[in-house]
Amino acid sequence: MASPRLETYCCPNRDAATQLVMHFQPEVFCGVCIGSASISLLLTILQLLPKKGQSPRKMPKASSSSTILLLISICDILGGLGMIFRSSVWLGFPGFIANISVVNGTDVWPSTFCVGSAMWIQLLYSAGFWWLFCYAVDSYLVVRRSAGLSTIVLYHMMTWGLAVMLCVEGIALLYYPSLSSCENGLEHAIPHYITTYAPLLLVLVANPILFRRTVSAVASLLKGRQGIYTENERRLGTEIQMRFFKIMLVFVICWSPNIINETLLFYLEMQPDINEMPLKNIRSAALITWIIMGVLNPMQGFLFTLAFYGWTGWRVDLKWRKREIPWESLSSSTVGENAYPSPVNYPSNIHDSKKISTTDSQQTDEAISMLSEGNTSSDERLTRSSPIYQGW
C-alpha cells in the first residue's frame, strides 16, 4: 500500500504510532499486500489486452483522454510491482529488514532499500493522482474544444514535474539533516505528510467539481447538435455522468482508509502514552484500517479499468492484425465521390454553410466520443444519432 508511514519507518528513531502499525502482524500484512497487488496486476493487464471478437474502436482522431487513462493504469501497474517487490523482500529476508532499526549500523543497504522502495511506491501513486486530475481537466477542455493531443505534453510536464518535486521535497525534509536524526519533531514529519497527501486531496476536491461542469457542458452540446434533446442523447449524457461517478467512487473507496488511518495515528501521536487502555478502540481502528489499506490501495488499478472500460472479458487476442491506414479509406472515398461528378452546381454559400455545420457536428461527436470511449453501446448510439450518419 502507499502510505507516508513507509518512509517514516526508515527512521531508526521512528514515532510510536508508526511502530505500532508496522510491527502489527508484518507477515500477514505483507502477504495481504502481495496477494492484493498480484491479483490487481493480473486483472489490470487482462483488461487492457485486446480481446477476440472485438473490432478496434474507430475514433475520428487520437484522444488525449484515452492516453491519460492508459497512463493512469501504467502508474498503478508499476506501483503494484513496487509493492510486490517490497513485501517479498520483507517476507523473504527478515534479518535484512531488522537492520533498519539499528541506529548506528554500518550496513547502509537496508536503509537504502527501505527509502528507495517507499519512494518508488509513493512517486508512482502520486503521479497517478496527478494524471487523474489531468483527466478531469482534459475532459472539461475537450467539451469546451480547448484541448487535444498537443496538451498531453503539458500534462506530462505538470504530472511528472510536480510528482517528483513534491516527493523529493517531502523526503528531504523528513530525513534532514540525516537518516538517523529524522522524526525528532513534527517539523520533519508534517511537511512530508502534506506533500504526500496534497495530490490526493486535490483529486477529492477538484475532480467532482470539474466532472460536474463537464456533464453540464455535455448536455448543452447534445442539445445544440440537433436542436432537440432526444432519449438517446439523454441516455448518453447519463452514461458519461455514471462513468465519472464510478471513477470517483473507486477513488474514494481505495483511499478513504488512508485518510482515516492517518487521522487516527496522528491522534495517537499526540497522546503521552498510546498504550493506555482508553485508547484501545482507537488503536484497534488504526490497525484495522491499516490492513484495509493493504487490500484496497493495490486494487485501485483493476477497479479503475472497470470504471474506465467496463469488464472487457477473458478472451485475449494476441494475434497481430493489419490496421486500416487512414489515408487509404480517405483516398478510396475520394475516388468514389469523384468518379461520378454531380451535374448540379450548388451555390457556394450553401456548400460553405453545409461544410461548417458538418464540421461542428464532427467536433461535437469527437468530444462526446472521447468521453464515452470504451463504451461500445454509447459509441454506436452516438454514431446513429449523428447527422452525418443520418445523411447517408
UniProtKB/TrEMBL annotation:
Compartments where found: Apical cell membrane; Lysosome membrane; Melanosome membrane
TM spans (from-to): 28-46, 67-85, 119-141, 153-178, 190-211, 244-267, 287-311
Gene Ontology CC, one term: lysosomal membrane
Stored InterPro entries: GPCR_Rhodpsn_7TM, GPR143
Membrane topology: Multi-pass membrane protein
Listed GO biological process terms: melanosome organization; regulation of calcium-mediated signaling
Pfam family membership, one: Ocular_alb
GO function terms (MF aspect): dopamine binding; L-DOPA binding; L-DOPA receptor activity; L-tyrosine binding
Keywords noted in UniProt: Cell membrane, G-protein coupled receptor, Glycoprotein, Lysosome, Membrane, Receptor, Transducer, Transmembrane, Transmembrane helix
Disordered: annotated segments: 345-392
G-protein coupled receptors family 1 profile domain mapped to chain residues: 40-301
Comp. bias regions, Polar residues: 358-377
PANTHER family: G-PROTEIN COUPLED RECEPTOR 143
Family as reported in the entry's similarity comment: Belongs to the G-protein coupled receptor OA family.
Subunit structure: Interacts with heterotrimeric G(i) proteins. Interacts with ARRB1 and ARRB2. Interacts with MLANA.
Protein task: Receptor for tyrosine, L-DOPA and dopamine. After binding to L-DOPA, stimulates Ca(2+) influx into the cytoplasm, increases secretion of the neurotrophic factor SERPINF1 and relocalizes beta arrestin at the plasma membrane; this ligand-dependent signaling occurs through a G(q)-mediated pathway in melanocytic cells. Its activity is mediated by G proteins which activate the phosphoinositide signaling pathway. Also plays a role as an intracellular G protein-coupled receptor involved in melanosome biogenesis, organization and transport.
Record-given protein name: G-protein coupled receptor 143
Organism: Calcarius ornatus (Chestnut-collared longspur)
